[in-house]
Design a protein that fits this description.
The chain is of the alpha/beta class. It contains nine helices and ten strands. The chain has two domains: 1-77 and 155-161 and 187-248, Rossmann fold; 80-152, no CATH class. It has helices at 44-52, 74-77, 95-105, 111-121, 137-149, 167-184, 195-201, 219-225, 231-247, and strands at residues 4-15, 18-29, 33-37, 59-64, 67-68, 80-83, 155-159, 187-191, 204-209, 212-217. The structure holds adenosine-5'-triphosphate. InterPro entries: AAA+_ATPase, ABC_transporter-like_ATP-bd, ABC_transporter-like_CS, ABC_transporter_ATP-binding, P-loop_NTPase.
Length: 248
């Protein structure tokens, strides 16, 4: 196995009486794409927020690109990026101004050229001079994805990357993400409820339930292991098992 881009060990997060993440350990090899799958409230967003350093873990350790993210995440941050439906951009700034601000923050060289490339890739050319706040949800998602690739990240963390996109836009974005990942050799960890997206993009799946990893494997092996025809059916099996247990 090659180098590990992400190493998580016994990671937990408690919000008062709620244990959102319950001692999970996993690693993601450099250059691979891994999915965090789980029902509502399984702990996906909390895990990603801890990996980004937005939330402090209750216990456990996180290393990204060899950097201890709990003690000093700054050496890794410029080499990472993320998308999240929970992080908004300033509404009054235009798309171009927003992307330019982030490009400066990330110290992107040849900013204008990079913005032009991303505008073309994400079909943003006609939106660049519009106020971000005036865009539709799907248009905002495309801007957020362009923002996430500004610094050509080596590690990309994504929470529901195509959630508000129509099927055609979602398909285009998945192709773009796959191309970026293949060309750059980036490591991607994404949370998604879209099983087709996971089957298409991900080498490996972490199944999360009530803050714990209950299974992990390739999409094909999970389907085989559970005797199902699709990852969606595996997901439903695991979710129903959870419901059955909590009924007792
Ligand atoms: N700030 C908070 N305060 C209290 N509880 C929280 C907080 N954030 C998350 N939780 C709880 O932690 C658990 C995990 O939430 P999280 O948002 O990580 O789940 P998720 O897998 O991303 O769910 P979804 O698919 O619905 O987005 C849930 O029970 C949630 O209610």
């Amino acid at each position: 196995m090659g180098n590990l881009a992400i190493e998580v060990c016994r990671l937990s997060k408690r919000f008062n009486s709620v244990v959102a993440v319950d001692g999970i350990s996993f690693s993601v090899p450099q250059g691979s794409t891994c999915a965090l799958l789980g029902g509502n409230g399984a702990g996906k967003t909390t895990t990603l927020a801890m990996l980004l350093g937005l939330l402090l873990p209750t216990s456990g350790s996180i290393r990204i690109l060899g950097v201890d993210m709990v003690r000093n995440r700054y050496p890794a941050l410029s080499r990472m990026n993320f998308t999240s439906p929970y992080v908004d951009l300033p509404h009054r700034l235009t798309v171009k101004q927003n992307l330019d601000v982030y490009a400066r923050l990330y110290g992107v060289r040849h900013r204008s050229a990079r913005l032009r490339t991303l505008a073309e890739s994400f079909d943003l050319e006609t939106l660049m001079d519009r106020a971000y706040g005036s865009l539709s949800a799907g248009q905002r998602t495309r801007v957020a994805l362009a923002k996430a690739l500004l610094n050509e990240p080596e590690v990309l963390l994504m929470d529901e990357p195509t959630a508000s996109l129509d099927p055609a836009s979602a398909d285009t974005i998945r192709t773009l993400l796959k191309t970026y990942q293949e060309q750059s050799g980036a490591t991607v960890l994404l949370a998604s409820h879209n099983m087709q997206e996971v089957e298409r993009l991900c080498d490996r799946v972490l199944m999360l339930k009530q803050g714990r990893i209950v299974d992990q494997d390739t999409p094909a092996m999970l389907v085989q292991k559970y005797g199902r025809e699709s990852l969606e059916q595996v997901f439903i099996d695991i979710a129903r098992d959870q419901d059955r247990r909590s009924a007792y």
